[in-house]
Amino acid sequence: MSNQLYDSSIFQEIKKQQQELTSYRRRIHSQPEIGFETSNTVQAIKEFLNAKNIFSVDTEVSRGSLIAVIDGNRPGPTIALRADIDALPLQDASTNAWKSQITERCHACGHDGHQTWLLAAADYLHSHNDFPGRVVCIFQAAEESVSGAKSVVESGIFQKYDIQEVYGAHNEPFLDLGSIGFKIGALMASADYFKISLFGKGTHGARPHLGIDTFPAVTEIYQALQTIVSRNVDPLESIVLSVCSVVSGNGTSYNIIPAKSEMVGTVRTFSPAVRDFAEKRLHEIVKGISYAHNLDFEVSYNRLTGPVINDKECTEFAVKTAEELLGKENVLPALSPTMISEDFSEYEEVVPGTMFLIGVRDKEHTQPLHHPSYDFNDKVIPLAAAFFIELTVKRLAYLATKEDKTGRN
């Protein structure tokens, strides 16, 4: 790997801390926490920052999250860097010495690595603060439930610190180690949750005529929901509607027709109009089929988070910086959108920003995200941290010059 980034003093300095950073990451991996219940992880982050003489730390402003503020040596704009810190409710199936020690808890999405590369970047920016303005580091809880970013936004920190832009990254096992991918516009889809409850009348399995069976309606609703994608939405639009759980009865009784069935699923899209239509049409389908079968019904439809729509200027600046540092051969400037979701979108609804993907794939790291044997690739930490640092310093300098020209105070 021979390019400007690997030869830079920033990369070399962080590389010297590889053992410390790897040790931190693996310690977090062995003690994963989920949702907003991330107090031990937050304490570990705080202790790491304090050990580096970073004391402008707030653990109270947003539940389960931590905000660290790093000031440059002169006035200027403020940008935010974000890393998620929560794990998944999943059993760790790896054989690593640092595998999860907590049942049904696993850092199978790499958030242990995300917080580590941001800690490395924060440490360097604090000790080399020859830049204008301020950096707000957001260590965010509850990304997996796509609710943590909203909590951070509602805390008011974007207004308090006058944050102008936000940058974040996710590790990506489908990209090779040493590469970074970007996408102007829609990168990740919105995420909606629906729950359909059907209420009939239970009876003996040998006497179905004495009850009101929910199963025929379940099958019809399942099939009809698929027509929203295949027959109701323009084929050139992107939408996914998946029923992911159907629950009825107790799973063992062979001769009881249950009185209730439930269906749970998700809707993903990039378009607000398609999102509105899908919700409306789902209600219509459930209502019509339930009435036809003489069933009562309830529908819960929750919009969890919007699509990640990356700002053009922020993304182009990040791509140019990456190409200068890594070489064009290691930069993918136009990734294909994905139907997975990320609550980084909540930040982009407040200020411009961009999320990019950092490759981690090598011979030892091939498992996809959310696989029970997935483990973060520690070799990427210096690369990711150094890129965040270069991007931050260059972007702050650019914005400061832009402010001088426009006269913004």
Q: Main beta sheet, described?
A: 8 strands, mixed
Fraction of residues in helices?
25-40%
Which percent band covers the strand fraction? 25-35%
Number of helices: 12
How much is the radius of gyration in Å? 24 Å
- Could you state the oligomeric state of the chains shown? single chain
Q: What structural class results from the helix and strand content?
A: alpha/beta
Q: Quote the average pLDDT.
A: 97
Explain the layout of strands and helices.
Elements: H1 4-7, H2 9-15, H3 18-30, H4 39-51, E1 57-58, E2 66-71, E3 74-84, H5 111-127, E4 132-140, H6 148-154, H7 157-160, E5 163-176, E6 180-181, E7 185-188, E8 191-199, E9 203-204, H8 215-232, E10 239-248, E11 256-257, E12 260-269, H9 272-292, E13 296-305, E14 308-310, H10 312-326, E15 331-332, H11 345-348, E16 353-361, H12 381-406
Helix pairs in contact: 2-12, 3-5, 5-12, 8-9, 10-12
Model description:
The protein is 36% helix and 26% strand. The chain is α/β, with parallel strands linked by helices. An 8-stranded mixed β-sheet has the order 1-2-4-3-5-16-6-15, with helices on both faces. The protein has a 4-stranded antiparallel β-sheet with strand order 10-12-8-13, covered by helices on one side. Helix 5 links the parallel strand 3 and strand 4. The chain is elongated, with a radius of gyration of 24 Å.
